[in-house]
Automatic annotation (TrEMBL):
Keyword field contains Membrane: yes
Lineage, top ranks: Bacteria, Bacillati, Bacillota, Clostridia, Candidatus Avichristensenella
A GO cellular-component term linked to this record: plasma membrane
Superkingdom of this protein's organism: Bacteria
Main location: membrane
Domain Membrane transport protein MMPL per the UniProt entry, residue ranges: 43-327, 421-677
Entry protein name: MMPL family transporter
Membrane topology according to the record: Multi-pass membrane protein
Record has Membrane as a keyword: yes
Length: 690
């Protein structure tokens, strides 16, 4: 590594130019990255939802369906609005009361249940089918055009509207999050810095890596909106400590009397083990997600693993060159850090080391049991916006007037009118079902199909299938919704054994749940094994990886048990991401401190003195990294209106604080107490004490 660094320093101008060109090229590529807002895309190919979606698209098209409500309108005004909507570009059809009943007759003479599905208390509700899918940008443009009509009392709801709103939120929130995170990082870094130029140097190096990562995402067919929302912030927060490790080592070498060139070479050589081990453990945690059946793990895992790799390369290749170029500025802007010394904390922890061990043991059991009992959310609630948005307020207004709209679409073989009638009647009798829309329920089944409007027939019949839209009155995930779906599927199986398909948000929840529950165990096991092996190779020890992984895993259990003890459900994708991320990202702190402990032991210090010295030297870096990671997570949690992103931020914030606290308070006493065991389980080089 020394020879490579020497070569980079000799060609320092070329090195900076190459990184500048890579950054500029990536910024040009960034607008070409495709963002996917459809979480069902990540389901396994053999899942019911995937098969049903493919069949639905082939037979009927999988176009977006909106609920459009207009309040305070008469019947004649409602018909005019329907005509206006029908003629709009991007609208395939509009279904309203006049398609299923003769509204030339007095409303009192019509079936009340039918009327109230479309017109109630002066409000008209239209079912608007678009020519594009829920997640097409063209559908979002059509919704914008509908809103631009300027119709008073207009409300829009549906997956296409949720996707449109999420796109808007994503674009605005990324800027808001960075507007909070970057100043916060600068504040912490200035407080902890030993040179005024230090924080700017860190951010310059990491922004290069972040921009290259964002631009090179163009190599993927698409990235999920969850990945897009959090990748840059997580990359910044997680990999910032690599810069800290290298720069602080450089300052130590300068303080030891080395000239700038030799100090840079020694700093890279001395910090490489910690930086490489830290990067590899984080990358391993993310790559463990790649093997998930629910392939959003592959999406998140590849993007963030690539980002951490680029951060590592930027720190190792670019930062030494920038340090050397700015060596005189760094020397002139040196100052004392404002962070307190950790020596007193280290000595205090040594005095009560046995008490700390007991406290840790007492916390482990309820935390482990609590995190196993969490209630999880699996479905589209992970991707929809929270109640502060116009979209959710309009959805609630429609639901208040016309009820919850949570449809399950059944595809059954065409041609069995009697079977469809019987199935529809059985479904309508179920307590969770509000209505069943099918040709046999919307029109007299004895009427010839050619007497019905083409727009209606095309929505409910294809060459092979009849489509039945079963509307549920349950919106929230839980056992009630699961039971309702199971009842629908049981009824379909009774009438059409092995011949039916079902698709919709409620039915996709089981597919997601079955996929991710096994994924959770897989991700945890692979993360622990991969991280443990990397730490073992880095320290040539069997005991150290067990100690470090166990300590961080305790912090993870405590973090994940909080939702159980507070009685709050946990979005499962957040649990999966943080399970791998917290271990891979925060074990860096333990690696740094343990590396320092070993250095002090090699210098001949006794175990307790070595532990205190290690904390004194590395405590600042650990605290800064902890605060920045926690701050980034906190920013995600309070700014993002996308629940999956917000919960990942909250878990990250709490997890970083717990892991950092564990390492600072618990690890030094444990290293001293287990010194003999660590020595016995370590392969030593000739002449080494530890």
């Amino acid at each position: 590594m020394r020879k490579l660094t020497e070569w980079l320093l000799r060609h320092r101008t070329a090195t900076v130019v190459v990184f500048a060109l890579l950054t500029a090229g990536s910024l040009l590529l960034y607008p070409l990255v495709q963002v996917n807002y459809d979480l069902s895309e990540y389901l396994p190919q053999d899942s019911m939802t995937k098969r049903a979606m493919e069949e639905m698209e082939e037979s009927f098209g999988y176009d977006a369906v909106l609920r459009v409500m207009v309040e305070d309108v008469t019947l004649s005004e409602s018909l005019d609005i329907k005509e206006t909507l029908s003629q709009m570009e991007g609208v395939a059809s509009v279904l309203w009361l006049d398609d299923v009943a003769d509204i030339r007759q007095p409303l009192e003479t019509l079936d009340a249940g039918t009327v109230e599905q479309y017109y109630r208390d002066g409000a008209a509700l239209y079912q608007v089918t678009l020519t594009g899918g829920d997640y097409d940008t063209a559908s979002g443009d059509t919704i914008d055009a509908i809103r631009a009509l300027g119709i008073d009392g207009l409300s829009v709801a549906g997956n296409a509207e949720e996707a449109r709103n999420t796109r808007i939120l994503l674009d605005s929130e990324m800027l808001q999050i960075f507007a909070v995170v970057v100043p916060f990082c600068l504040l912490i870094l200035f407080l902890a810095s030993k040179s005024w130029v230090e924080p700017l140097l860190y951010l310059a190096v990491l922004f290069v890596a972040i921009f290259i990562n964002l631009g090179t995402n163009v190599c993927f067919s698409s990235v999920s909106f969850i990945t897009q929302a959090m990748a840059a912030v997580l990359q910044l927060a997680i990999s910032l400590d690599y810069s800290l490790f290298l720069f602080h080592r450089y300052l130590e070498e300068r303080d030891a009397g080395k000239d700038a060139r030799e100090a840079v070479l020694a700093a890279v050589q001395g910090s490489l083990n910690s930086i490489l081990a830290s990067a590899l453990t984080t990358i391993a945690g993310f790559l463990a997600m790649v093997l998930m059946q629910y392939s959003i793990g592959r999406d998140i895992g590849f993007v963030l693993a690539k980002g951490i790799t680029l951060s590592f390369l930027s720190v190792i290749l670019l930062m030494p060159v920038l340090i050397y170029l700015l060596r005189n500025v760094i020397d002139k802007t040196r100052h004392k850090p404002w962070m307190p010394s950790f020596a007193k904390l280290g000595r205090g922890a040594m005095k009560i080391r046995w008490v700390l061990v007991v406290v840790l043991v007492v916390l482990i059991v309820p935390a482990y049991l609590g995190q196993q009992q969490n209630v999880y959310l699996y479905g589209d609630s992970a991707g929809s916006a929270t109640a502060q948005t116009q979209t959710s307020q309009e959805r609630e207004a429609i639901e208040a007037k016309f009820g919850v709209y949570n449809p399950v679409v059944l595809l059954v073989p065409r041609g069995d009118t009697a079977g469809e009638i019987a199935l529809a009647q059985e479904l309508e009798a179920q307590p969770a079902v509000t209505s069943v829309q099918a040709l046999v329920t919307l029109a007299d089944p004895t009427l010839p199909r050619d007497m019905l409007p083409d727009a209606v027939v095309e929505q409910f019949e294809s060459d092979e299938y009849s489509r039945m839209i079963v509307q549920l009155n349950i919106a929230e995930e839980g056992t009630a919704l699961t039971q309702a779906v199971e009842d629908i599927e049981a009824a379909a199986e009774a009438y059409y054994p092995g011949q039916w398909l079902a698709v919709g948000t409620p039915t996709s929840l089981n597919d997601i749940r079955l996929s991710v529950e096994s994924d959770g165990t897989l991700v945890q096991i692979l993360s622990i094994l991969a991280v443990g092996i990397i730490v073992m190779l880095a320290f040539r020890s069997i005991v150290i990886p067990v100690l470090l992984v166990a300590l961080i895993q305790c912090a993870i259990w405590i973090n994940m048990s909080v939702p159980y003890f507070t009685g709050e459900p946990l979005i499962y994708i957040g649990y999966l991401v943080i399970s791998g991320l917290q271990l891979g990202a925060t074990i860096d702190y333990a690696i740094l401190l343990t590396n320092r402990y070993r250095d002090e032991r090699r210098l001949g210090q006794a175990p307790m003195d070595a532990a205190v010295s290690a904390l004194k030297v590395s405590g600042h870096s650990i605290l800064v990294s902890t605060l920045i990671l926690a701050g980034a997570g906190f920013s995600l949690s309070i700014i993002s209106n996308i629940p999956s992103v917000s919960i990942i931020g909250l878990l990250l914030c709490r997890g970083a604080l717990l892991s950092g606290g564990m390492v600072i308070v618990m690890l030094p006493p444990l290293l001293a107490l287990l010194d003999r065991v660590i020595r016995a389980g370590t392969i030593k080089r000739k002449g080494e004490i530890l």
